[in-house]
Amino acid sequence: MITAGIDMGSRSVKVVLLEEVSMEGKPLMVVKQAHMMLPGDLDADQAAEQAYDDALAEAGVSRDQVKSVFATGAGRGQVAFATEGVTEMTAGARGAVYMYPQARTVVDVGAEEGRGIKTDAEGKAIDFAGNEKCAAGAGSFAEAMSRALQLSLKEFGEASLKSDKSIPMNAQCTVFAESEVVSLIHSSTPKEDIAKAVLDAVASRVCAMVRRVGIDGNVVLIGGMGHNPGFVAALKNAMEVDEVLLPELPEFASALGCALIAAERLH
Amino acid sequence: MNAGVDESKLATAAPEKKEFWRWQENTWFDETKNWKDAKIITCGIDVGSVSSQAVLVCDGELYGYNSMRTGNNSPDSAKNALAGIMDKIGMQLEDINYVVGTGYGRVNVPFAHKAITEIACHARGANYMGGNKVRTILDMGGQDCKAIHCDDKGKVTNFLMNDKCAAGTGRGMEVISDLMQIPIAELGPRSFDVDVEPEAVSSICVVFAKSEALALLKAGYTKNKVIAAYCQAMAERVVSLLERIGVEEGFFITGGIAKNPGVVKRIERLLGIKAVDTKIDSQIAGALGAALFGYTLMQKQGGKA
Fold first, then answer.
1. Is the separation of the CB atoms in A249 and A33 below 8 Å?
2. Percentage of residues in chain B having pLDDT higher than 90
3. Choosing among B175, B205, B211, B237, which should be mutated to test the A contact, i.e. which has the most A CBs within 10 A?
4. What is the C-alpha R_g of chain A?
5. Pairing state of beta strands A84-85 and A66-72?
6. pTM across the whole model
7. What distance in Å separates residue A24's CA from the closest CA in chain B?
């Protein structure tokens, strides 16, 4: 049986196709992924269609074979072909616990949102706290600063790891922080130190949100910011935990959770 | 399998385009007068986060100004702003009796005799521009927004400002201008070219508002309608700041956004008050106030800086 989970984020669409094969009474999951950025000239529903078609082609699966499609993410309402929508909290917790059964605190940092989710052993979200009104503590913040530093996102994350300085960022607002970064550049602060200052600021902001639901020792980081090693280090430091569990493809966790929920509903 | 953020795709999604957000830089001086006839020449330099202005005041009267974009170095921005007007009228720095710096870069004006906060300077400038009936000033700048109360002499009695968030500032308008690919000066007039006045953009954060504006376009809004929704959001945002301090008439708006009727008329509509008119460029209010303070200080000090 194949189900699909589509995570319609503010900047990208993630698709997971899940094939469940029963082996000795235990389901075996085969996961297929596709991911695409939302280009400026594509409607959200078009982008979802395209990402879904890409995933199906990649996996060699036809639309008819997919028994159920669930959608999550800020734009889940725009996925016309989805049978049902689930919240990002529900999907994120489910996906994270599937990958790391010991996980109890899920930190999800995407393009425009950051949130902390408290989950139970079944991957059911118990509580959450997130940013609602402000982009500080999300990927866009880091992205704007990497632009100001004229570094690619990859270089930005790597640069921050080379610094051991702690420069406080005063501005919380993305717009103000950009000016602050520019003035740091002009006061000849090394880029590595600025990159670390930015990621420390994002991490501390995310950490403040996660603290509202409580930080358990078993923390999983999901969402696109998981690809930034500087952020992962800063987050670990801010949360004062020994380890942050990090999936290989952190941005697919919610789509995976979504596909899992779709499969469970069919049983 | 395409995992992670593909930056090449990101680059095509948001290419560098023409800089629609760039507003008109301008220089003006009173051609009916000659600065050489003045006894006291004072200068105010407002180094803001986005724009810098230099204003020359001859014997307590506005003589000329230059307004330009703040560069990446405050002392240079101050020098360039002043050079922009001095070069046109053949004035040298030595000809100026007193220089006052204001704005966020006020301590970095190398040749200033004194630095005065922009709150005090905007109130003083507004008092000159709008007359002594002005009591509430809304200063909408590039990255800040302030509500100021003053007395009949332009002396500040109370103020409030946004200090943590760029919502309701010029920067947000620049972002929308770039997104819509419409020159910033056209946003105001175009915001009234709609069939039905839309609901305000609901996001406060500039980053979120940009995404929301994009979503509105995709949902079939015309560009003008999105601009109207954003102007309304900005107006609502600054009105909530104004309401915290209270609005007394005469109400006067300074700063760059005062030149955007799309925001100004919506503020007036929400408040039910019309702003006091002026023929002077609202963007120079801070620098003008600074130059006027310089004039008062010169008189008090018997003409010595």
1. yes
2. 79
3. B205
4. 19
5. parallel
6. 0.85
7. 30
